[in-house]
Amino acid sequence: MIKPARVFPWFVATAVVLVLAACSSSNKKPPKLADSAPRAPVAIAWKADTGDAALGFAPAIAGNAVYVASRKGRMTGLDIDTGQTLWRIDADTPISAGPGADGTMIAVGTPTGEVLAFDTSGKSLWRTKVSSEVIAPPVVADGLVVVQTADNRVHGLNGSDGTAKWMLQRNAPPLIVRNTQGAVTSRGGLFFGTAGGRLIAVDLASGNVAWDVAAAIPKGATELERIADVTSRPLVEEGQVCATAFQGRIACFEIMQGTLLWTRDIPSYSGIAADETQFYVSDDKGVVHALDKQTGASVWKNDLLNGRWPSGPQFVGHDIGVIDIDGYLHVFAAEDGHYLGRLSTDGSPVTVQPQRDGDQMLWQSKAGNVYAVVPR
Questions:
Q1: 247: burial class by Cβ within 10 Å (0-12, 13-18, 19+)?
Q2: How many CA atoms lie within 13 A of 67 on its CB side?
Q3: Domains assigned to the chain
Q4: pTM score of the predicted model
């Protein structure tokens, strides 16, 4: 039996970011923003109150709908264009992560290790038990529901009835940071990061490991200093898969064999966005970077949000947006990093990296609102 690792807390005050407070001498408040700032070239298309959320929650986009869960068990289906409520149910249990969805099914996980599946009208399909608390949004793809649990296991469940199809367990270092952002699928493969800085590719149908590589190398003399966990959702782009690691780096690998393509020493706890030529990432100090997609070379960086713990970047139209600890959406020009302005929301941070649907940028706030923002 693998001995459970100690999970390091990752809330600093009300921050919904991964911050190791022990790495600093004090829990400093984020620096104040200037009293005035340019008005961001974006507008809120719609906003929906869906119930309070936490890390491990994110809107799931499938077709013309957005599916959202709350900690207390409320589940909501929304029209992606208008935010109009399509249906709302009570799952009759607290929810710890989710939802995940495809065009036919929605799945969420609970603190007691249950996985609940619903059809796209909110009707219950099945309920099953896995080994421990579900910590990241389930992946629903190719007739499977894949969940990650707090005991370092990944479970592949049959989408038709929730029965176990495969299970993968990995060793973990003594001290880890909980990864709630989840996995991604592409062309029959499942890609996810682990404690200790590993990035793993798995055959989705069988659970067999295709490759297992070091996305980050733990460094330092103490357990705390050696935390280099992959805490972002991997990004699959044009034959490569990339991930970021806390106290680590950003690394990109060839998707079939896992061959290292390039790395940059940019530690981050958030995800990556991409366009045709560049990757975008927020580092653990709050600096937003643009990197050449093929080489990892720096194109620009903007340190305006240093110390304000911005989310992972995401596109809104052709520009890049990040959300800071106080819920402000900050917008930068993708080509040169020029600051374009900010937009105030409900004052609470995002739960995970925002998502993109066409020109819309969507996210769920800790306070329980889902926002869709579009270019003005």
A1: buried
A2: 28
A3: 6-375 (2.130.10.10)
A4: 0.89
Q: Could you tell me if 192 and 183 are in contact, meaning their C-beta atoms sit under 8 angstroms apart?
A: yes
Phi, psi dihedrals of residue 104, rounded to the nearest 5°: -125, -20
**Cα first-last separation, the chain:** 55
Q: How many Å apart are CA 89 and CA 111, to the nearest integer? A: 19
Rounded CA separation 1/4 (Å): 9
Residue from 217, 202, 221 nearest 154 by CA: 202
Contact 177, 246 (CB under 8 A): yes
Identify each DSSP E strand in 93-248 by its residue range: 97-101, 105-109, 114-119, 124-129, 139-141, 144-148, 153-158, 164-169, 175-177, 184-186, 189-193, 198-203, 209-214, 235-237, 240-244
Tens digits of pLDDT across the chain (376 residues):
344 454 443 333 333 333 433 333 335 688 999 888 899 999 999 999 999 998 889 999 999 999 999 999 999 999 999 999 999 999 999 999 989 999 999 999 999 999 999 999 999 999 999 999 999 999 999 999 999 998 889 999 999 999 999 999 987 665 556 667 889 999 999 999 887 788 999 999 999 999 999 887 777 777 776 676 777 899 999 899 999 887 778 999 999 999 999 999 998 888 999 999 999 999 989 999 999 999 999 999 999 999 999 999 999 999 999 999 999 999 999 999 999 999 999 999 999 999 999 999 999 999 999 999 999 9
